[in-house]
Amino acid sequence: MQVYEAPIRDMRFVLDELHEDDGFGNVEGFEDFDGDMTAAILEEANKLCRDVLLPLNWPGDQQGCRIENGVVRTPDGFPEAYRQFCEGGWASLSVDPKWGGQGAPHALAKMVEEMSCSTNLSFGLYPGLTGGAMVSLEAYGSEDQKNFYLPRMANGEWSGTMCLTESHCGTDLGLLRTKAEPQEDGSYLVTGNKIFISAGDHDLTDNIVHLVLARLPDAPAGVKGISMFLVPKYLPKDDGSLGDRNAAQATAIEHKMGLKASATCQMSFDGAKGWLVGKPNKGLEAMFAMMNTERVAVGIQGLGVGEIAYQSAVYYAKDRLQGRSLSGVKNPDGPADPIIVHPDVRRMLMTMRAYNEGCRAVTAWVSRALDAEHASPEPEVRERAKDFVALMTPVVKALFTDLGHESAQLAIQVHGGHGYIQETGIEQFARDARIAQIYEGANGIQALDLVGRKLPDRMGRNLRSFFHPVSQYLEDNAGDENIGKMIGSLQQSFGALQLSTGHIAQKGLKDPEEAGAAAYDYLHLLGFVAMGYCFAKAAQIAHLKLAEGTDDEAFYKAKIATAQFFFDRLLPPATARFMAITSGKSSMMAMPEDAF
Amino acid sequence: MQVYEAPIRDMRFVLDELHEDDGFGNVEGFEDFDGDMTAAILEEANKLCRDVLLPLNWPGDQQGCRIENGVVRTPDGFPEAYRQFCEGGWASLSVDPKWGGQGAPHALAKMVEEMSCSTNLSFGLYPGLTGGAMVSLEAYGSEDQKNFYLPRMANGEWSGTMCLTESHCGTDLGLLRTKAEPQEDGSYLVTGNKIFISAGDHDLTDNIVHLVLARLPDAPAGVKGISMFLVPKYLPKDDGSLGDRNAAQATAIEHKMGLKASATCQMSFDGAKGWLVGKPNKGLEAMFAMMNTERVAVGIQGLGVGEIAYQSAVYYAKDRLQGRSLSGVKNPDGPADPIIVHPDVRRMLMTMRAYNEGCRAVTAWVSRALDAEHASPEPEVRERAKDFVALMTPVVKALFTDLGHESAQLAIQVHGGHGYIQETGIEQFARDARIAQIYEGANGIQALDLVGRKLPDRMGRNLRSFFHPVSQYLEDNAGDENIGKMIGSLQQSFGALQLSTGHIAQKGLKDPEEAGAAAYDYLHLLGFVAMGYCFAKAAQIAHLKLAEGTDDEAFYKAKIATAQFFFDRLLPPATARFMAITSGKSSMMAMPEDAF
């Protein structure tokens, strides 16, 4: 059974307690979002997600989307839920009030995002894509475009898409063929076919704003000849009312492994009218503004699914009676003990729990930086925050989605045969989560982004925004009486990360394939060190709270237990990736192609 | 695209070259199965699997099974394919000629099994279950039962099932409720409901022989009161022709994540006529004879899916053009290079390849022992073989299925978005493979079987059948000029395994939860040491062959490259499980139940 209650206590912990000393400060402009307000928003979001989105999750998977006379229909209940979602202001929680948004900090909005990803990943994609498109428009659109489109997207009345992929090119956008012909009125006619377009068509909004990558007639070949166009489904009149249907049509819905309630469309643009966004041939840059936001969002999808997978597995493990505890009967009145008594079931539950808490802690850290990057009054802080976000974006995207999928698989395993049956609703988590490791740049591409771009950038400056606080922390707390052993273990992993970084810097400079061969393991190692740092800090705070007395003992004790599990069980194998990283590319590249 | 060609060269390597010195000898009675005969059988099996079973694999997943007026229909083409399968004698390859089988060695039959698991896992379950039921009947049935049923099952005319699970009990069979009432004619009336019954009903055979676990009226509670009954779908007359329909009915087909062409049934036994197999209240023992065979078979399912996932990913990686090689353009005439040039794609392909070759090598080792256990002329060898099979059965089941599923997931990742689309046929591998980690005892149960039963059994004697040859090999080859580094690395992992074994033996004796907490990581560590041992031997053989000259250079060079990748990239993280194992149970069991 899919069960969910937002982990508000932990969300508040990572928002309010864990990162106070991260140097990103308290950002101006968020004065309205104090502790009470944050708590109220999280409570309200939980209600909506638990009571409205979750009940549609499994039925949506079973029903899927359908295309009827060229119109895409979402599953029963989705349009109504979307209306509630927008009326509650959830579509624009972190959007600038200038465009009608609520102006909440990203750090808070990401927690709400986690909830919708937990309870209905397919649903979340519709407003999620709109949010991404707004980021791109805000950064690169003209004043007229922004004033006209952003308010209508912020309130959820219109939605957005990103139309990049064509059947022959996904990762390698340089190959794309869609064309845009300039017209005398300053508009363009866009022609081409796109695939894998999330929310490409649906029945939730009156209009859809497609951001389409295409080539101008005189464009240079490759990635330097790509421009971005705004192509609405309906051509709006000046007053915002809808005019003619544009020649932008969903021709089919993809049949996917999961995420079936999200309409992934094949789109045909057949001389569709559009307008240039940003400069000619600079479309990739504009699209990347959106992609980076989306990449963090996709990481949170992994966390979201991981959380509901954990909660559902816990529910089952407490409910399902099989066998007896190895340390003596625990449920003498029942025919057997609940399976949560078994160490191996604990191993799975604790693994999921540690992944979720670790990812949530890192999310809060990164999204605090996201806020500081945009709104800190201090230029030095803004710079450092920007470096940190740049570094961590691929880590959040790839690591969180790998771990979220792993958690979903563990939830199936906890359920045994019942996890493999559709009616239980558990296998859906794994099928849904799986796409997050692929879209917005497959995880291998994220790893390449990390080692190929983010590390060497400005002589490693991005990395320093992460290494400095960690090494400082290790130095300051080496002898901590409560968490000394954790610090020692973290020190070891951090050392492995430093050596790995040196290996990549040195070997990769001469031979980029050496960096490529190390990339994936390196991303995981870095991510685990980041989680380990957060867990050490969390355990330290918990020890202090318990020492000074708190009415929330259970929470802080559980935090220490989870941290201890992470250091005992999860960090060592991640640290051993050091061996794989430094083994170099030779064994990976040795085999001639035709020997495969 | 699902592509497949049986890896016959590697199969012949593990059958003929790799394990010559394993001490299990050349078993008598298999003289007909010399090298030429083996090659011919593998070639024929490849043709059937590639040309008949594979084309039905994806359509079978899409169509699934259906229940029409109480009768289960398999997907189009399955009945005809089953007929071909049986006519070719494949249903009884390793069955005793006494019952009409071909009498081939298990070692050979397991390779053929791998092929059918690769090309159509759902299909393979129908004859697979029959094979398991025959093992149980052969060991525990009366002479009359054997003479009557086994020949009809060996030729595939009738099929078999194992009916264990009820909705409230899977792992904990002590809870089962199905009842058997003795009748005056010596038969029993069986009444109860079973779920998750593979091949519970279908249209491939005239009759189905259900082996049903149930309780006699005076049976003691728990596992000591379970008996096994033979309950045919149609009550056969003395001449084998079919009489009345028995009250054993499929009431529904489960809706599963995958394996959709395999009819997994809910079964209702409503006073169905049956006969006791073996002794009263000893049904679990009889069922376990079948379960152990099935567990090895399920491990091979993991390997089979891993192999086709690998081949399909290689096909795509050579075909798909995206981006350019980091070491210079490789496909100057094309718009981009094939993605197999990218190190991270290589990482995925090599991982799958190493898993498959490692598992196949261990399969050959274990199934040679299976043959020796049953047919070696030397009692000492039979004993040692039995110990080794007992030890390795849970390892083969759990490790191979974990790795097979991981390979299927990697194949999706290599395919990017196209891997997530159903039409490509790749995501099916992951959905199909997933069940193998669960059924026939979830992998966590296998790990408990390993540390709780197989290790302590007779003061660790099972383990010695594995530790002795490995430590002897390490001692003999420490200074090997070709594979010295591999030996060093294996030595380290083996040391970690020895220390882990000591930890479990010592701590687990006082506190079984300590053994339970270590079990899963220990199983993986042991399995990786077994694969490492096989890879070291394989690389050594390959070096010798290359030195003395061979017309198969490419094969032996590739074997060395794969072994090197295994030691560089895969063994170190597995070895690091030592840290998790020895961290003990405390962090796993610390959290009070209500803190989850």
UniProtKB/TrEMBL annotation, chains A, B:
Residues 77-157 form the Acyl-CoA dehydrogenase/oxidase N-terminal domain. GO terms for molecular function: flavin adenine dinucleotide binding; oxidoreductase activity, acting on the CH-CH group of donors. Its cofactor is FAD. This is 3-methylmercaptopropionyl-CoA dehydrogenase. Residues 162-271 form the Acyl-CoA oxidase/dehydrogenase middle domain. It catalyses: 3-(methylsulfanyl)propanoyl-CoA + oxidized [electron-transfer flavoprotein] + H(+) = 3-(methylsulfanyl)acryloyl-CoA + reduced [electron-transfer flavoprotein]. Belongs to the acyl-CoA dehydrogenase family.
